[in-house]
Recover the amino acids of this structure.
């Protein structure tokens, strides 16, 4: 059974349809305060089922359950179907888990980083066996 604090719907016969819009914005920079366009707060339901903010993409058209942008951009074309799509820099403090390609070329994952001897570097490059491939 669903219980709503606020429920709102928007008919999809218009170019832009928004169920609920939250805005906290000043046209000039401020030196005080904190602004939340939307703030979600949840907890103490069944383990694993607590979401501060939840977004779901339905239907068969391209889009994303959660979209994040920077620099005031409010119009983004999402080129596929994603749970999350971000236009701008994304920073993760902590561990980023994925179930696909692991990106491990990060200085934070390495130690004893030193410059190689130039002669040794060239010899190493010449021993490489370059290949070509296509992703599946």
């Amino acid at each position: 059974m669903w219980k709503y604090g606020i429920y709102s719907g928007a008919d999809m016969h218009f170019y832009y349809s928004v169920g609920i819009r939250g805005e906290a914005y000043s046209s000039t920079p401020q030196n005080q305060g904190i602004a939340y366009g939307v703030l979600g707060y949840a907890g103490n339901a069944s383990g694993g089922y607590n979401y501060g903010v939840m977004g779901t993409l339905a239907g068969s058209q391209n889009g994303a359950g959660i979209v994040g942008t920077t620099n005031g951009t409010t119009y983004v074309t999402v080129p596929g179907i994603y749970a999350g799509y971000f236009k701008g820099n994304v920073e993760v403090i902590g561990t980023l888990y994925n179930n696909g390609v692991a990106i491990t070329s990060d200085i934070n994952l390495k130690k004893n980083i030193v410059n190689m001897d130039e002669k040794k570097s060239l010899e190493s490059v010449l021993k490489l066996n370059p290949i070509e491939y296509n992703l599946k």
Notes: The mean pLDDT is 86. Residues 1-135 form one domain.
